[in-house]
């Protein structure tokens, strides 16, 4: 497939590098894993871990240089084949020469494009994922790039996948700890009771949130310790940052809680200015 227009930021992502933290390598991988798995299933790649495209904000235009089965999931916006609207969340058959276009997204932020057989780019440390912090994996797509595609399976041909994204406040579950005892009781109540605003400085490294600063009960600095996807770090300014897939493997800010896996998928789709609330979940 040939990239006619790469859009604002389109990355190749798969399931990432989840087992290399001890070597100082972050997990990376698709931000919205649920949408990624849906797209793979629609093109017959369920369970294969194949690489897909993560499209920030839409604007991607691809030309099929051979026949392919593709699917678009995640953020919702116009999807067109040869300028004709087609369905989001279902398999699409492209003939050689046809053009797939993603318009600007209307709900959500990141769309996912799967191609039957997966994108066949060279792996780095066992993954085809682009890590924007560590600068590992393939570069962001550019106009004129040619994408190689692996051997496809026959798609399942199941029913379309409905988008569960809705505009408005996004509520995610969070397990408090391990450093919730660094914050006052009022700060914890404020953390769970506030509609936080998504900062325009958010990216794949972390979803930054604006609001009233959270007051610490413990002063001083914390020695760097391991962090995971979904960790809620509280910066020196008292504001929370939910770590995304390209997070560093350690951090020195106290981690007030950890957002559940489903919650991180939901945060992949929040836009600057959106409201986010946290709901306390029991410890596993």
Automatic annotation (TrEMBL):
<dbReference type="GO" id="GO:0016787">
    <property type="term" value="F:hydrolase activity"/>
</dbReference>
<feature type="domain" description="Carboxyltransferase">
    <location>
        <begin position="22"/>
        <end position="284"/>
    </location>
</feature>
<keyword id="KW-0378">Hydrolase</keyword>
<dbReference type="InterPro" id="IPR029000">
    <property type="entry name" value="Cyclophilin-like_dom_sf"/>
</dbReference>
<dbReference type="Pfam" id="PF02626">
    <property type="entry name" value="CT_A_B"/>
</dbReference>
<keyword id="KW-0547">Nucleotide-binding</keyword>
<keyword id="KW-0067">ATP-binding</keyword>
<dbReference type="InterPro" id="IPR052708">
    <property type="entry name" value="PxpC"/>
</dbReference>
<dbReference type="InterPro" id="IPR003778">
    <property type="entry name" value="CT_A_B"/>
</dbReference>
<dbReference type="GO" id="GO:0005524">
    <property type="term" value="F:ATP binding"/>
</dbReference>
<protein>
    <recommendedName>
        <fullName>Carboxyltransferase domain-containing protein</fullName>
    </recommendedName>
</protein>
